[in-house]
Amino acid sequence: MKVYVYDLPPRFNSEWLSNERCSKHLFASEVAIHRALLKSDVRTFDPWEADFFFVPVYVSCNFSKVNGFPAIGHARALMASAVDHISSQLPFWNRSLGSDHVFVASHDFGSCFHTMEDAAMADGVPDFLKNSIILQTFGVKHKHPCQDVENVVIPPYVSPESVRATLEKLPLTGRRDIFAFFRGKMEVHPKNISGRFYSKRVRTAIWRRYGGDRRFYLRRHRFAGYQSEIVRSTFCLCPLGWAPWSPRLVESVALGCVPVIIADGIRLPFPSAVPWSEISLTVAEVDVDKLGKILEHVASTNLTSIQRNIWDPQVRRALLFHDPILEGDATWQVLVALSEKLDRSHRRSRVLTQ
């Protein structure tokens, strides 16, 4: 399999790197995959022999001056401009109508390019991308406008260097003195907009039910060294936020904490490489009140088996993006997924010509 990487003008990618957060924050897989492909053996400099065309546009590096979060209101226009550019320079977009072109949409609702679900669903996938392949962190098992496009679910970005540094200080085999851990936004006031809609009120329910429970280490404020808390924890809660997925999924696995996924219908990344049912727990959103009993039951029955599975270094590698690519890592898994799509395409072509 060969991948051609478009050499786009800096305004589409490298100019954004002037802010160092661009390559480090939770949406940075768009940067990591680009960098890895540039050094990969699958890269071809001859577009005529390419099976896929990678379009490197960084849409998540425009940070709001108000709250510091990625602002992707410009995403659709930036993507459309990139498509105009490549279609005017080379014939390959028009040849396939973009069906062999690959983009990254590593933010909340992926190829819909919006951070709020109602607006994302109303807008849907931009028409000019509907034939393309989107690598996106968003994925659900039910029908949803934001995955009405050929897509591959990928993990959010977690820095391999940060994981390595944490494990050097506190190895996986160290004492886990925190039973159940969560640090993040938990809305206390259910009457404001976040309280009514954020996390479908799941995080509010967790805070109300377990905020005073000594088994649960719950914190609502940011702490730069929170990975040191994860590596001390047995169970790490991964409730939905605005979207079902969370970087906690990756951080928990990478740091040996059993992820407790509370996000109904979520599609998880790379299921052929990551045995999610053997390394995590899934709790229905309506069962949050039973969370304590569920975790106690697992702790007294099959916890050792789950921990043994989660400590498999191949599982950790599959969820982390390395530069350059390591065999089995997250970019490797993306290439595996693309090769499977290529195989299916070839099989369909043979059937049609028979």
From TrEMBL:
Subcellular location: Golgi apparatus membrane
Residues covered by the Exostosin GT47 domain: 1-297
Keyword terms of this UniProt record: Glycosyltransferase, Golgi apparatus, Signal-anchor, Transferase, Transmembrane
One Pfam family matching this protein: Exostosin_GT47
Main location: Golgi
Topological type in the membrane: Single-pass type II membrane protein
InterPro entries registered for this protein in UniProt: Exostosin, Exostosin_GT47
Membership in a protein family: Belongs to the glycosyltransferase 47 family.
The protein's name in its UniProt record: Exostosin GT47 domain-containing protein
Species, as recorded: Rehmannia glutinosa
